[in-house]
Design a protein that fits this description.
- The chain is built from six helices and no strands.
- It is mostly helical and 170 residues long.
- The longest helix has 67 residues, at 98-164.
- The radius of gyration is 35 Å and the shape is elongated.
- GO terms for molecular function: DNA binding; transposase activity.
């Protein structure tokens, strides 16, 4: 592997560093960059490649409850087809709890349902607003009509007064 600064890194070295970003180590990119003398840009690129390959690599130095949704989703994907003993082993290796993975899995499975419910609510609200807008438009047209009639009557009254004079003067 050749980085931007022209330094070549062996595949083993790259894998070892990426592994440090993975659970249970979950070391931050900044810490690894400082210790290894590798630019953060290179480390972020390696982390992105690992995520694209489906490996959870938070690399943010945070505990698992503060991981981003992508890393949580990748853990759910890695463990989805595992049996109980495989999941237990996975949790031991990664420093995770089964309950965390179950909670993340539940959130992932409900994600589309929540989006559908939200869309349904928004559509209902939109229809209500459209209905209200139509009603307000009708009211406005009625008021404009009444105003035009009143203006026409005032104009007729002024013309009548100009032609026949003012009844109030007598």
């Amino acid at each position: 592997m050749k980085s931007r600064n022209g330094i070549r890194y062996s595949q083993e070295q790259k894998e070892a560093i990426v592994k440090r970003m993975m659970p249970p180590n979950n070391e931050s990119v900044a810490k690894i960059a400082k210790e290894e003398g590798i630019t953060e840009v290179t480390l972020y690129k390696w982390r992105k490649e690992a995520r694209t390959a489906g490996v959870a690599t938070p690399g943010n130095g945070q505990t698992s409850d503060k991981w981003n949704s992508q890393d949580k989703f990748l853990v759910v994907m890695e463990t989805f087809a595992m049996n109980e003993s495989e999941i237990a082993e996975y949790c031991r290796k990664k420093g995770l709890y089964r309950e965390q993975i179950d909670a993340w899995k539940s959130v992932c499975l409900q994600a589309n349902g929540q989006a559908f419910d939200q869309a349904k609510q928004l559509n209902g609200a939109l229809k209500e607003e459209q209905k209200r807008a139509k009603q307000l438009e009708k009211e406005l047209q009625k008021k404009e009509k009444a105003l035009a009639e009143a203006a026409a009557l005032l104009l007729l009254r002024k013309k009548a007064q100009a032609i026949w004079g003012d009844d109030e003067e007598e």
